[in-house]
Specification:
With 171 residues, the protein is of the alpha+beta class. The chain has a single domain (12-169), classed as Alpha-Beta Complex (Peptide Deformylase), CATH 3.90.45. It has two helices and eight strands, in the order αβββββββαβ. A hairpin with a 5-residue loop joins strand 6 (111-117) and strand 7 (123-129). The longest helix is centred in the first third of the chain and has 16 residues, at 26-41. The protein is globular, with a radius of gyration of 15 Å. The protein starts with 25 loop residues before the first helix and ends in an 11-residue tail after the last strand. Bound molecules: zinc ion.
Length: 171
């Protein structure tokens, strides 16, 4: 496992659509492991492959135990994740490891159902609400070249914060 460099806004890989993973190879499994290590070292609650310069549809997510009673504290590597159901809405501040020093207000679905493959090739379905649902939407956006700063509720809802304090926050 290795910590990889996290690209910051302005790097073209953050603006490209990542390609579907056709086969789960040892390279993809190593990517999952590296991304988890990179996310934890940052630290962050999610990371998409675009952020380490790999244009494959892979995200890792690990939200704190107290943020989700069911799935908090569990680490996921999701391959080809897809939102298959979405409902409700939530407004809150979020940050991004690729946009250091800022948080901004974004509206997201309150609940999503995501289908993906796990790194062992098994199909997984995650029903999430609240914070975890927000993180899933943020990471899947990355795979389409979208950053949260594209989706601010208003241009003045972007706030400077101390570097290292930009992890996703709930208002
Ligand atoms: Zn991000």
């Amino acid at each position: 496992m290795a910590v990889r460099e996290i690209l910051v806004d302005g790097h073209p890989a953050l603006r490209k659509r990542a390609k579907e993973v056709k086969r789960i190879t040892p390279e993809i499994q190593a990517l999952c492991a590296d991304m988890l290590e990179t996310m934890r070292a940052a630290p962050g609650v999610g990371l998409a492959a675009n952020q380490v310069g790999v244009l494959q549809r892979v995200v890792v997510i690990e939200v704190p135990e107290d943020e989700d009673e069911l799935l908090g504290g569990k680490a996921f590597c999701l391959i080809n994740p897809e939102i298959v159901q979405a409902s409700g809405s939530q407004i809150g501040n979020e940050g991004c490891l690729s946009v250091p020093g800022y948080v901004g207000e974004v509206e997201r679905y309150e609940r999503v159902v995501v289908r993906a493959l796990a790194e062992n090739g098994k199909r997984v379905k995650i029903s999430a609400r609240g914070f975890l649902a927000r993180v899933l939407q943020h990471e899947i956006d990355h795979l389409d070249g979208i950053l949260y700063i594209d989706k601010l509720t208003s241009p003045d809802k972007l706030y400077k914060v101390q570097e290292g304090e930009e992890e996703v926050e709930e208002v």
